[in-house]
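Listing S7. Sequence submitted for prediction.
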Amino acid sequence: MKQSEFGWNLSNYIFNKNYNFNREKILNVCGEENIIDANNVISNWKNYQPTPLLNLEKLSTKLGINNIFYKDESQRFHLKSFKALGGAYAVEKVAKENKEITISTATAGNHGRSVAWGSQKLGLKCKIFISEYVSEARADEMRKLDAEIIRVKGNYEKSLEACISNSKANGWKIVQDVAWENYETVPKLTMAGYSMMIKEISTQTDQYITHIFLQAGVGGMASGAIAGIAKYFKRIPKIIIVEPENADCVLKSIDKGALQKVDIKKESIMGGMSCGEVSLIPWRILRESVNCCTSVPDDHVAKTVAMLRNKYFYDKEIVGGECSTPGIISLISTCENKNVKKKLEINENSNILVIGCEGDADKKLYENLLSKGLTQLSK
């Protein structure tokens, strides 16, 4: 498959008129001391080891790019997601003050598993609120970690509202990766946990990363990664945000220079990214540190899952869930848009990083997507 044979297009893209990457400002938002502490704490967890950084040589050749690196978070502990780094770390820090507390959170899946795991390790009760769109398979994975699951009618935002109101009424301690007014400390901890990926990457290659494609839902992973870049990278890459086309709240906010809420008419198959509003703390980092925002359709998710598994991009099978695909989809689509590619200076000398943020965390959904993708590839 040559570059021209992909035929993929970006749903939308914008360049940030207010770009001004400021290391000191970014580290102050996240808390440099949090980033250092997260590295020290997480690296001492039982069974900790850095996840692999793969070089997708086959895809690099197809796109005419020097290197495309894929951070494979499918092997992050037993949770199969980068989220293991954030929620569990935040629970540990919060519980230092009180080992008798009940932990609560709202989740689309992977964050909840991390919070449940962190709570289980410390013997804490854990209440997890999920929307009607979260699969029962994901709910079962959280139950296996001794969490009580409370399903709420409506979308993720409704589950978060229910979590906040019930937690206030019952005195539960919320461990959320989303910030709001007067709730900022814990989200900073989860972001610091996510920065661990960048710390690892800084030791896994001596190549200068020229571009990084970062998925965004509420912006926690992206801002945590950017904080990691500010702390651990000597040279700053161009940063491209990727969102589902129906939930492009970061893109719209960057475009307007102020927070914008998106009314999601149809939930994306990339469920963990189907968010209508950027979190407050991540926004303080994203608004000036991002070069470009892109959005992508759901159309290519299944095919990309199958391509990862069927060695289209790498010489071994890669198990990448639905939210591992948008970075690759955006990269391919960007390379097929001559204007965007030129403006981002993507060329034969580029070393590009994409985050494979999860594996088959939802096994049933993964198998369905894989089957659909294999069918698409066979046509």
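Caption to Listing S7: primary sequence and predicted structure tokens for the chain studied. The domain at 87-176 is CATH 3.40.50.1100 (Rossmann fold). The chain has a mean pLDDT of 95.
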